[in-house]
Amino acid sequence: MSSNSEPNPKIIDLIAKKEAGSKPFVSIEFFPPRSDAGVKNLYARMQRMKESINPLFSDVTWGAGGSTADLTLEIAEHLKETGHVANMHMTCTNMEKDGDPKLAVHSALKTAQKYGIRNIVALRGDPAAGQDEWKAADGGFTCALDLVKYMRENFGDEFGISVAGYPEGHPNAISEIEDPSTMSESEKARSSTCDGKTFTCKDEDYKKEMDYLKQKIDAGADFIITQMFFDTKVFGTFVDDCRKWGINVPIVPGLMCINAYPGFCKMTKFCKTRVPAELQAKMDSIQDDAEAIKAFGVEYGIQMCRELMEIGVDVLHFYTLNLEKVTFGILKGLGYDVKGVVDESDASTMVAKGSAWARVGDKVKTIYGSGTVQDVRSDGTAQVMIESWSLAEGQTPTAFLQKEHYSKVF
Ligand SMILES: Cc1cc2nc3c(=O)[nH]c(=O)nc-3n(C[C@H](O)[C@H](O)[C@H](O)COP(=O)(O)OP(=O)(O)OC[C@H]3O[C@@H](n4cnc5c(N)ncnc54)[C@H](O)[C@@H]3O)c2cc1C
């Protein structure tokens, strides 16, 4: 491992070096894996991806509810030590140290500073496990804006700061529309459908979103990384709107790599993402063919990136899901110099730390054969319908299994 004792440069200074007419820079995102084997494999992948695509910067996420704080810091340090410019995510959810949430944030930032990590994605975070609504800890931050302000007040220019932007509106600002014919043209353009229902961020809510985003930038954020999207027109409109709102910082498009059908469906439903009808139809038609999904992920990614390059972006930011095949494929297709050979033999170890052990509907392998999860308790115990057994009169047995006794089938 090469040692890098110098603090990382700030990403905003690196973006500023982009020459007119040159291809966009590339950046990538990883999440902290659940198991030690996953972390070991991730470190090997980070090394390979540094050598093969040399990203401008590399993000590591902060697990839902702050569940990975120490591991995120460790991975960010490792990124930096292996020559990446680390962009460490940090959320305000469940941040408490000696009962004081600000102390916990301060101490995590001090640790980052000690490691020479100079770039932070300042986020509010999603609700902690088991909660529907996000609640601030007593005396803690209420939103990402508070975190940005705190960092600038207490650490000055020590850190480069990026914040999240939502081209379709934050999921909390997206509502169901009873009568789609009442939507304005702009509401229609960013609308999505799920289970036969129509959703959109209404114009008045979108304006509030933009006002708030402007506050995050005015408080000292250097640039924006967007939520995933699959319709580049929505991104283009968002960029135009940001400029109208006086938000003039770089806007980095977040590109979710299409790696697998179940993950695509789960994420787009959770984020209420707009999925163009032809994209959904294609995904549905090849859902049982894992290799075809990846090949299509590459094809669709290339098309999206070409459209983004026409709009004009400084950076293409890939949510890699800790894998490499789709990112490499897209970059190759766009004519980037990609070295090395794809190796995803470790894919089953790339399960996020802090994510549910399994979710209702997941297919699992158990000591009694294969089955489907019916319920999961907070300690990871799952109720599984064992489909490989059938009892008299066509009944199917149900087993209650501790988390060590079942594993997800990917
Ligand atoms: C690029 C990116 C990276 C992410 N990384 C992570 C991660 O590592 N870990 C993780 O747990 N989650 C991550 N998330 C998810 C994110 O934590 C959630 O989307 C969360 O619900 C909101 O975080 P935020 O920083 O956007 O919140 P905020 O910027 O605080 O905004 C959340 C919502 O509240 C509204 N709002 C908040 N305060 C105000 C106010 N004062 N006035 C008006 N409106 C307000 C905003 O308009 C918005 O709708 C990421 C999201 C993105 C887009």
From TrEMBL:
Transmembrane segments: none annotated. GO terms for cellular component: cytosol. GO terms for biological process: methionine biosynthetic process; tetrahydrofolate interconversion. One of its GO terms (molecular function) is FAD binding. InterPro entries: Fadh2_euk, Mehydrof_redctse-like. Pfam families: MTHFR. This is 5,10-methylenetetrahydrofolate reductase.
